[in-house]
Specification:
Helix content is 67%, strand content 0%. It starts with 19 loop residues before the first helix and ends in a 13-residue tail after the last helix.
Length: 137
């Protein structure tokens, strides 16, 4: 009798990872501009798969999660400026607050799209996102 054991090689950094789920997360984020709900679904998918992902996909999931939370924080700041600026329109101080809030919300929308596009770019190339914890692109 011979003892045969099968030894599987460990997963290396150069191994090909499945790109479908990170692409789905980016797609759900971009689709969220039409309905809003898919932002949350994309976030849930990213959280659910981050711990079991390889190093490349883990960087994309971390990047997507941070993109969501940073955009929410900046949207709240812009929304608060608009909300507090509306009653201040009586004394004309609110107009700059409303304009600043709208500019912040518009800039955050463009920033969100740019981060998703850059994430897709690195994903298609099969590379980990180089700075997943960065604030900028």
């Amino acid at each position: 009798m011979t003892d045969t054991t099968v030894i599987t090689p460990p997963k290396t950094l150069g191994a090909e990872e499945d790109k479908i789920l990170p692409a789905v997360v980016y797609g759900l984020y971009l689709l969220g501009f039409t309905n809003g709900l898919t932002f949350i679904i994309g976030l849930i998918v990213a959280y659910a798969n981050r711990d079991s992902a390889g190093p490349i996909n883990e960087s994309h999931y971390t990047f997507a999660i941070r993109t969501f939370w940073l955009s929410i924080a900046w949207f709240l700041i812009g929304g608060a400026l608009i909300l507090f600026g509306i009653p201040m329109l009586i004394v004309l101080v609110g107009l700059p607050m409303i304009i600043a809030g709208g500019l912040i919300m518009g800039a955050v929308s463009l920033w969100f799209v740019a981060r998703c596009v850059m994430g897709i770019y690195y994903l298609v190339r099969g590379e980990a996102y180089p700075r997943p914890r960065a604030w900028l692109i």
